[in-house]
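Annotated sample (chain length 819).
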Amino acid sequence: MAAPHRSSFGDPLRVWSVQVYVGLLVVALAGGLWWPAPVCAQEAPRPVRIGLVLDEPNVRSERFEALVKQELQALVGRTVEVQFPEALRRVSDGTIEGVAADVEAVLANEAVDMLITLDFLGSSYAAQRAPWPTPVIAAFILDYELQDIPFAQGASGVPNLSYLTFPPQVIRDLETFQSIVPFETVEFLVIEDAFSVFPELVDRMQADAARVGVRLRAHPVGPTAAAALDRLPADAEAVYVAPMNHMAPGELGRLAEGLLARGLPSFTIAGAPDVEAGLMASLNAESLPRLARRVALHAHRIMLGDAPSELPVQFDAGEELVFNMAVIRELGIAPPLGLILEARRLNEVPEVSGPQLTLQSSMEGGIAANLTLTAERQALAARAQDVRLARSALLPTVTSSLTGVLVDESVAENSFGMQAQRSLDGALTVQQVLFSEGARAGVSIQRSLLDAETATLETLRLDIALEAAEAYLNVLRAQTLEQVQQDNLELTRTSLRLAEVRERIGAAGPGERLRLQSELSQRRADRVSAYAQRRAAEIALNQVLNRPLADEFVTAPLEAGGQTLIDQSLLAGELQSLGKFLVLGDFLTQEAFGRAPELQALEAAIQAQERLLVSRRRAFFLPTIGLQGEVSTNLATGGAGAEPLALPPELTGGLSTSEVTDFPWSLGLSASLPLFEGTARDARRQQALAELADLQFQRDLAAQRIEQAVRTRLQFAQASLATITEQEAAAEAALRSLDLVTDAYGQGVAEVFDLLEAQNRRLLAELGVANAIYDFLIDLSALERAIGGFEVLASPDDKAAFRERLERFYQEAAPPRLR
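Output written by the structure step:
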């Protein structure tokens, strides 16, 4: 049995205490490069039996084993029968001796066709022994240089050996950590005994940290949080945490609480799970599924006849920036906006709150609360009083009056009792127009004008609904574009990792890495810009809805927002049928003429003008007839002359002044007809006639413009709907092209400029899809506005009636003619 290179492991008796730690550290470092699997040329003559070695029983290793089996079976399908005999599966005891014995036992079994080691110790031993009697895939090699494992031009270079190794990430992590919070010294918490098992690892990390101007101090820690916290010096500025899977459940959370209590920012290698446990940030993506796929790809290629010595060994860990926002807030840290937007944010409080807005609720909310529309409603309410004012001219008027008179005393004395010095008289007058052509016309005209104002308000209501719809759809568009920019940012970060791998293996110089670093900065700027555009769209929607401009709200999920609205639209389905589309314009124009409030307003104004013209013609021969009655009495008299003069009977004819009535009354009937007013009456008639003709021309022009709007918007909607399909096809092709170029770049076949060009094509294609979807929805909303009603605001009965009219129109219409 070949002996392992002990210099890479230290004392074997101490290995068991750290093997789980190092294995999980490798998982945290792992990521994946896609390697396309070629088509199997022929079926294997017999089943392929694969041996598996696990360092010890643990959940992570068993999950990884299941993923490898699943991925390999998916790759080979029915072309090759793959078996994992129980006799070839070994779960060791966590010691280097036990792992070595199990590896040798599997390799010595004549039934084995391939060996896969799934953990760090087994992989290290299997990759260091030589020769290899059967193909070996060592899944976890942390550093081939430090572990003294064969490496040549990106592969093992030796027969029957393939493995996966991971690029160092300390520089990347510490640069990101420093961009969140500045520090000069970082404390590295690592599992105890790691120095003796793998002392070169810490030395390498300290050297890498020095390259970015950071002093890294390593502190071995045991299974308790208290012991780890005691290791930290009083002058600690920041803490870099290795995977702490050796700790008992709950201890990692207590460690995070202790760091937070001391005001220390933390950055973990282990990824999102440790951030969820309470640490501040991480830059590692979930890697086990991708690593399992890569192992399965290597196994499949070996089955197809590829030499293990030529299979690429570099494996990118992948990245996902994760923030624990609760910790960041507690520490009072303000990371750059670009990083905040780039990161997946946990415990982001306050959560996005407020009402959930849909297209329908946004349109209804705009109609109900928009300030412009509210002001016009009040103006219409005031305008409605003009009808009552006009009608009042035809109703009776009752007037009461009091008249007090004070005259000179000498005048009163000489009036012979006819004029008292002081007198108070009261009167009650009633007037009633019996017939007035002008007054009757006024009532009719004001009613028609009110109808016109109501129709004008409906025009504004439709405009506000369209404005709200466009504002809401622009929010969805901005959210989608923001997500596209986020995806592109992550894609650029992945490409940068590929460039770093190529530079590390000598396949490329630093120029590629620097070019992609520049591209990454630009993508971060694009991400920030997309965020600003999304917030601006939300503010615009709040303004239309008359909500506080900074208030938040929730919209429909992005993946369902645009497409669901398309699927639910009746007109969207009609636009996809060429036969129906050719006659759809005639039907929608007919609908628009029956609904359009612009036409209704002009029709009402024409009615008012026609009634005015009739009134001005009748003014030549119809009089105004009125009735007036009055009752009056003297209420009080005093002073000189208050007593009537007593006259001899022979002068009064025997009539006593006391017999005169106290309530004299009068009743009059009048009829008036102007006989000549110069040329005023004819001028008014001619004026009304000309204004009527003007309104009729306006109505015809409005109808023409409505038809133009309907047919134009219909064309735009059809074109934008068709554009969606083309943009989706372009996006799919761009994505396939990017996959191929990325794969070629990883293999050293393509250049960085090819990669960037493919990424830009993919970005433009994704942006094109998003814009096409929301351009169509906005065009569709504009078409519905031109028709005079929105489907989303219609009742089920109205929708059913519309569909019935449409189907009947299709049946009755002449066969369409393509032009």
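Annotation: Residues 1-44 have pLDDT under 50 and may be disordered.
Annotation: The two ends are 84 Å apart (CA to CA).
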